[in-house]
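Re: the pair you flagged

First of the two:
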Amino acid sequence: MADDTAEDPRNWDVATRLIRGGLMRSPIGETAEALYLTQSFVYDSAEGADARFAGTDPGFIYSRYGNPTVSMFEQRLALLEGAEGCRGTASGMAAVHLALTGLLRAGDHVVAGRALFGSCRWILNNWGPRYGIEATFVDGPDLDAWKAAVRPNTKVFFLETPANPLLEICDIAAISAIAREAGAKVVVDNVFATPIFQKPLQLGADVVVYSATKHIDGQGRVMGGAVLGANALLDEFYRDFIRHTGPSLSPFNAWVLLKGLETLDLRVRRQSDTAAELADLIAAHAKVKQVRYPGRKDHPQHAIAQRQMTGGGNAMAGGGSLVAFDLGTQAAAFRFLNRLELLDISNNLGDAKSMATHPSTTTHRAMTEEQRLEIGLTAGWVRVSFGLESPRDLARDIQRALDAA
């Protein structure tokens, strides 16, 4: 008999979802989630194996297909995102590749925001054309450009918001409405905003992707990724792709990511508060040409950020943990980076440790100079991911490095 008083996880607040979501204890009754380091599983009988492979018994078959630890991670992240389902992947780029190629066939067309991580741009520029998939790149905030780029064979709209590296904001709801009219699916890379501050599915997107390597782990330990959406969509477009091409998430990495999710809300809010405070300090320095931070009123798409980076109505708005600023020249940017003592020079982001990078020579190096200039990425830009150190200590380090720039 069903227990009508049982807790419904969908009614939990974010903090509870991050601790209790997807918890699947073994008969031993462990406190921490169990780590199932197994390749395969055994069956009570030949008939039992037959039922598993036929799909009539929902148990596990092989860790490339599914694993109990990975399943806990997927369920917890789906609960946080407000998605029906989630599929873990080996890395963020595995998630992007899965999300796009699962929806596309030879002869299809993609419309994408021009401002993308370098590897995302490579997939659309170099990988897709090998299989007869074309892409058109548009100015993300320009809704008319999205409309004008649609073709009869357009199947996917792909965007990052905030975008890497200059934190451009796209209007997810408006772009999703254009895509629906065109019969296309919308894929949103939500890694910069995190599910704490932005819920693309609630704004009309069909698929959300994450590099779990970033804020979800948040402590520089493992790689991972995730694709989220409706269960019917995940089954139709991604189930067989995952089974037969093997972009699977390691159970150990999934276990680490589960522990990262427990503190995600606390970390991201603290990092966002620090970023907002230090964005103002950076903007006030005479050597800084311009600053991009979604929480500042001088951000070109500040109004859109205020409207959609609100955690889906379940959380206070936040601008995220990243700040980008222009020092004018590569030489000035390098002088700034080389003078830092607390902040690490690293191309990663979302970590407990604050990190600074020069996108033109690192994360976006694979793009041509023309492509970088199309998104406004000149050689003077620096991108900083703020961590959990004391804001006062970070301010002192940044001030000293700006003076040296």
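Second of the two:
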Amino acid sequence: MKLYSPATVRQVIDKYKFTFKKNLGQNFLVDGNIVNKIADAASLGSEDAVLEIGAGIGTLTCALAERAGKVVVIEIDKNLQPVLAETLSGYTNIDMFWGNALKTDFDALVEEKTQGQYGKNGRPFKVVANLPYYITTPLLMHALEKRFNISLMILMVQKEVAERITAAPGSKDYGALTLGVNYYSEPQQVVKVPRKVFMPQPDVESAVIRFIPRKNPPASVENEQAFFLVVKAAFGQRRKTLLNSLSSLGIDKNQIGTILPDLGIDPGRRGETLSFEEFARVSNSLHPLIPEK
């Protein structure tokens, strides 16, 4: 059964009287070409364990199971239980977990489902998902900030989010999300995805991004908390100069006005013009001066 066929998807959801829930961001893939591109981008083999977030009716799940040794799936909508019981019945290497991905320890889950072979104390695993748009950023940062034992992530996200993640300094899309994601990973766009390949069609276009987790940020950061405080302050009000925006950290403007030129950075610049390396240098210099809260 080709689950990416629109006719088959309609047949399945009609059979089980399934209704799409907009509040869960349910948009199922109905294009085999895109499904295979996502699965292929993960470079899966029989030695790989994959964590999928959101199974839908199992379209991508099946493609992953045909390539990987083990597939662990997190799905929040228990109304899909009878659907997935049928569509995934031919596979012995898929293990379901019914719960909220945002509240799930990925390492612990994968470790449990693979009997300790993968996860925190085992081998690294991969994450592949067509993420619900309404929780894309929280889920992405949950996966990155917790530093789970992930070797690679292939995620479908809203096109606008993809543009923000991969933006260059000075562009309108460059911001705190760009720097946050790049702090923890190397992101690269894989393919753009039109809205017509989903059922129901979303209001926006999508893109698939590959994330390779970093062991260390791309520039030396002496204090992680200070780095993100500086980034947040710099983009709090985008039109403000660095001199004004960074003073919100509780540091005297005169000190900022002295430190930035010493770093080769004009205090009149705006945060959106600074590279990651420049943000790192600024935070390294300012963090001893940031008042503790």
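The mean pLDDT is 94.

-B.
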